[in-house]
Amino acid sequence: MKKSLNLIIISHAYVYSAYRAKIEALSEYHNLNITLITPEFGLEGGGQKVYAEQYEGKDYRHIILSGYFTGKLNFFVFKNLKSTLQSLNPDIILLEEEYWTQIAAQVTYITKKFFPHTKLILLSCENMCHIWEKEAETLYQKFRYASFHFIEKYVISKLDGLIFQLPGVWQDFENRIDELGFKGKRGILPQLGVDYNRFATISPKLPEIRAELGLNDNTFIYGYIGRITPEKGIEDMIHAFENWDKDNTKLIIIGNGDAEYVNQIKQLVRTLKLDDIVIFKNAIPFEDIPAYFQLFNISILLSHTTPIWKEQFGRVLVESMAAGTPVIGSNSGAIPLVIGDTGYIVAEKDIFSIREALNDAYINKSKYIKLSKLAQNRANTEFSYTAIAKKTYDFIQEIKKSS
User: Fold this and answer.
1) Architecture of the 196-382 domain
2) How confident is the model at residue 111, as a pLDDT?
């Protein structure tokens, strides 16, 4: 039986096959005929190319297109996108890229010029309301930001739907988006979430990991998984453990970063005489991440807001929550909105408040058990790929009805 709605999803994010769990969940809605279009590769934080692995299943179709400036997220465009879309006869296109990028301009132009009956939805992960025409300081920025502003005015005014990840973003962006001429439907849903069952199911690797790290079953473990960079607040985390007096506790820091900065962090640990508490470990394979979040009693994300960035979502938050591990998070960007009432929210860079949260998590056992259950439930109902697919499907149906 032929599916009734041709949905095209375009995003560089799905170069990473693990993220396609959302596409698979969305394909459970049998009136959707889904085609995913990705570039040939993406770039990891260190600039390493990650090539798209071709999906060979039957839940949806996957097309990998070559392009120009591939890997440069503000500038890349596809080759042969028009002919590809013509072969697919799209009813709805869901573009998961930022609205000032070259790819947004390319998709918008082709859709509105050659597919006038196709609805176009854009999902943005942005949470800082840039006013590009006023932010430029250098000559280079004036040229670059002028192009961003030109594109956003063109794209926003032609969208049938615009999605931001969290409610607070719409509150901050509403006037700006109106000024740019947006007339379509407004949505709120995350781009990516968590494969809930994968993180909630106890990993058989836990005993092996405990043995490798020299941990016993009663060790209370605080942990961080992510990039080792200044804006992630790792120095705050270490300072909060100064003169730590709780027995049988460890702080495990997992990730890679600039060698000079990593050495600086390790020197801080030595200076504060925390060598017996802090364990450093290089970045781990993706398939091992659930086991480590299950190993932790508390995970920590103390991001700092900078002039050009604040935490947009923090996928490690929902992964930790799905594992039943509450989070201590700073009040940067999306962190409080994701954690809700399932963990601890502290002010950025407030070492005293961070230390209080570390203490409370260790001492207040009944609260900890409650938070663990709340975190796991919130991850499942709000941020699992099943939940996000349902929200995506519902928004698509709203757009379809507006035809």
Assistant:
1) 3-Layer(aba) Sandwich (3.40)
2) 98
